[in-house]
Design goal:
Length: 251
């Protein structure tokens, strides 16, 4: 018996990294589809997503730009019910406030935060009608949890995810709906590798990074927490920021 049997999960940013690990089985951990959920996996990069999930029973791939309100509304309108909403999409711009032009601010806020407003607002009426639902939002340790250099607008957006999570949790707890967010430190994903590759000496940059944060997490380790939060096992947990950082925050 799966921990998510009979549940319908709408997931964003499913083509790679944490989003992909969360929808697909990634041994030895179990992810949404392996635990019995019917998954609507979405990404702006539909060709990559289709390539990754084709022929996997229980997963349907759909194109979704999370920053586009009309796309969000029209996709959610097609679904009879949504038991789990996994808001994973996010970008990681580099720089201080002085590097952050207004266009950078708007783009980051739109993809990392406003998208969650669109998705939660579209899905919540269905969850209210069902009398149940679990929303899992992807935040970061780099947020209101902890400051890190060169992550100005990213930190602001992820701090906003925390506020959005707690506000929704407080407003909908009486309707049987839970809302939590996950705050990972560094996780081994394609975009992390791209950020390391962008430095003049990627080998040195990786070593310095590991020295700073400790061990880099695996996407499956984050997926395992997402499964727990999505499942009824976490039925007494809502409005929480779950920090998963290998101890980085202890330093
Ligand atoms: P990633 O950055 O490697 O991939 C992101 C995915 O999001 C890609 O498939 C991309 O196509 C998709 N995407 C980008 N813009 C989109 C949009 N507008 N609409 C829909 N999809 C879009 O993935 P990752 O590193 O696993 O990051 C996933 C989430 O986890 C992000 O919210 C990120 O901030 C958060 N996070 C990552 C780390 C890390 O170290 N990797 C740490 C903490 C938090």
């Amino acid at each position: 018996m799966g921990r998510l049997d009979g549940k319908i999960a709408l997931c964003t940013a499913s083509a790679q990294g944490i989003g992909l690990a969360t929808v697909l089985e990634s041994l030895p951990r179990k992810a949404f589809v392996k635990e019995g959920a019917r998954v609507i996996a979405t990404d702006i990069n539909i060709s990559k997503l289709e390539q990754k999930v084709k022929d996997v029973p229980g997963i349907e791939a759909k194109m979704l730009n999370v920053a586009d309100k009309d796309q969000v509304t029209s996709l959610v309108d097609q679904l009879d019910r949504v038991d789990i909403l996994f808001n994973c999409a996010g970008i990681v711009p580099n720089g201080t406030i002085l590097d952050c032009e207004e266009a950078d601010w708007d783009q980051t806020m739109n993809i990392n935060l406003k998208s969650m407003y669109f998705l939660c607002r579209a899905v919540l009426p269905k969850m209210v009608a069902q009398g149940s639902g679990s929303i899992v939002n992807m935040s970061s340790s780099v947020s209101n949890v902890k400051g890190a250099p060169m992550r100005f607008v990213y930190s602001v957006s992820k701090g906003g995810v925390s506020g959005l999570t707690k506000a929704i949790a407080a407003d909908f707890v009486s309707k049987g709906i839970r809302c939590n967010c996950i705050c990972p430190a560094a996780v081994e994903t394609p975009s992390l590798q791209e950020r390391i590759n962008a430095s003049p000496d990627p080998v040195k940059a990786r070593a310095a990074f590991v020295q700073k944060v400790g061990r880099i997490g695996k996407p499956e380790e984050i997926a395992a927490l997402a499964v727990y939060l999505a499942s009824d096992e976490s039925g007494y947990t809502t409005g929480q920021e779950l920090v998963i950082d290998g101890g980085w925050g202890l330093a």
